[in-house]
Amino acid sequence: MSKGDREGDKALRLARLPPGRHGLPREFVTRNQRDRLAAGTIAVVAQHGFNEATITQISAAAGVSRRTFYAYFSSKEECFFTAYRTIVEHLRIATDAAAAERAEWPGQVGAKLRATLEFIAANPDLAKFCLIAPQRAGEEIASRYRAGMGEAVGYLCEGMPSPPATRAPSEVVAASLVGGMVALIVHKVEAGEGATLPDLLPDLMELFLTPFLGRAEAVRVARSLS
Cβ distance 178 to 207 under 8 Å? Predict the structure, then answer.
């Protein structure tokens, strides 16, 4: 099998992810050429990184011509951001649904983290595409990635009780929380253990909740909800 065939197979495997909260819907790949190109971008960038990925490789993975690529996207960057937004939208749906089943804020955090880990574990290429590649791309992509990580902190903090029930960490500490969690996820994916990402849930919960609740309470909650 040629390299182009392998990349095309990776793109098509995205269509076979389980539906709903555990992965991208089948229609993400099969609905039309634009979505196939986004899926091809995920597969190629996950394998080669953003800078090394080419439009020729993306088109081949999507099963379309370069001419078709340019009918939908003006650049590799535009296609990348389209795919990135689509993943984030589906992840938000999954995490919102999971959190809605929990009444207390720590439980909502745990539900969001669990849904995220299960979502990525269904296809670890999503971690390579969303968490690894952006940090190694140009400044435009890297800066948008950093902004997205800041938004992720705010999202996890939604519904958080006011002090004294929780503590308010400094901006520096808050910014480091998602970075630490991303590092743990990336390490597991790069070690070829992406399918076991849900095992990280207790560690991620403890890491995130400690600045807000204190370590002892964070450990207790992480153990009770994981």
Answer: no
* Contact between 185 and 120 (Cβ < 8 Å): yes
CA distances from 114 to 42, 81, 96, 158, 219 (A): 22, 25, 12, 16, 16
Q: How far apart are CA 91 and CA 99, in angstroms?
A: 12
Between 191 and 33, the more confident residue is 191
Beta carbons of 63 and 84 less than 8 angstroms apart: no
Cβ distance 58 to 40 under 8 Å?
A: yes
pTM here?
0.83
What would the two tokens of residue 180 be?
Answer: 């630490």
CATH of domain 3-225: 1.10.357.10
Enumerate the domain spans of the chain.
3-225
Cα–Cα distance measured from residue 221 to residue 226, given in angstroms and rounded to the nearest whole number: 8
Q: What is the pLDDT of residues 137-196, one digit of tens each?
A: 989 899 999 999 989 999 999 999 988 888 888 878 887 888 899 999 999 999 999 999
Between the two ends of the chain, the Cα-to-Cα distance in Å is 41
